[in-house]
Design brief:
single chain; mainly beta; 7-stranded antiparallel sheet; two-stranded antiparallel sheet; 9 strands; globular; TNT domain-containing protein; TNT
Length: 224
């Protein structure tokens, strides 16, 4: 298969997602309430950079301008929870990092097997990522953030790479590129069910090998 994946998974094929969305009470606190940041590592000096001054919760403002505005349409950052309960549900204080799903984040079928398969992305295909070049997960460019089922910290602009606001990077495939592809498991209070491509080398390596090239995110404007 030598074209971008367009996975259409029949509803009956997918196993029930036990962590799809939080079913606990929705947050009713105002963001200006003193109690809103209970259960977080609140830091008043960092509230202009992160929600509650806690880097785990991402930047206080989401993208509102092109080309990323549509990527965050209807995105509900904490899945309806207040920040503290969200962290309690998804952040592992023992390991000091997020609880990520099994099977590399791929949705699973009723038999418990991950829904995934190798495909070949053709030259010219645009892919993107909210994360560093040393990661191996990408999505079709401009896929909604809620379909990616990522934690809010992936949106933090890297201090050592301020040229990439919201940690966003776009690449164009320049040679046939084999990836492991499949639908995304609901997680982090997000519905998921977008498409993820798991690369067999990180983006920095693939760039140096000539399989992909970095492109300005403004290229997404031409697709509208």
């Amino acid at each position: 298969m030598k074209f971008p994946l367009a996975l259409t998974v029949l509803a009956g094929l997918l196993a029930p997602a036990t962590a799809a969305t939080n079913t606990t009470a929705k947050c009713t606190l105002s963001k200006t309430s003193e109690a809103y940041c209970d259960g977080t590592n609140y830091n008043a000096s960092l509230t202009t950079e992160y929600v509650c001054g806690d880097f785990r919760l991402g930047p206080p403002k989401l993208p509102e301008k092109l080309p990323l505005d549509s990527v965050f349409t209807i995105y509900e950052r904490f899945g309806g929870l207040c920040p503290g309960p969200f962290l309690a549900a998804w952040f592992n204080t023992t390991t000091g990092w997020w609880n990520y799903p099994s099977f590399a984040g791929f949705s699973v079928a009723n038999d418990g097997a991950p829904i995934q398969g190798n495909i070949t992305l053709a030259p010219g295909t645009l892919i993107d990522r909210f994360g560093s070049e040393y990661g191996t997960y990408v999505s079709p460019a401009a896929a909604p953030y809620l379909q990616r089922a990522l934690p809010p910290s992936n949106l933090n602009t890297p201090q050592d790479a301020p040229a990439f606001p919201y940690n966003y990077r776009v690449y164009r495939v320049t040679k046939d590129l084999v990836v492991l592809a499949g639908p995304i498991l609901p997680w982090f209070g997000q519905p998921g069910q977008g498409v993820q491509y798991m690369l067999y080398n990180n983006l920095a390596t693939l760039t140096s090998q000539g399989f992909v090239e970095r492109v300005d995110p403004a290229v997404m404007l031409a697709r509208r």
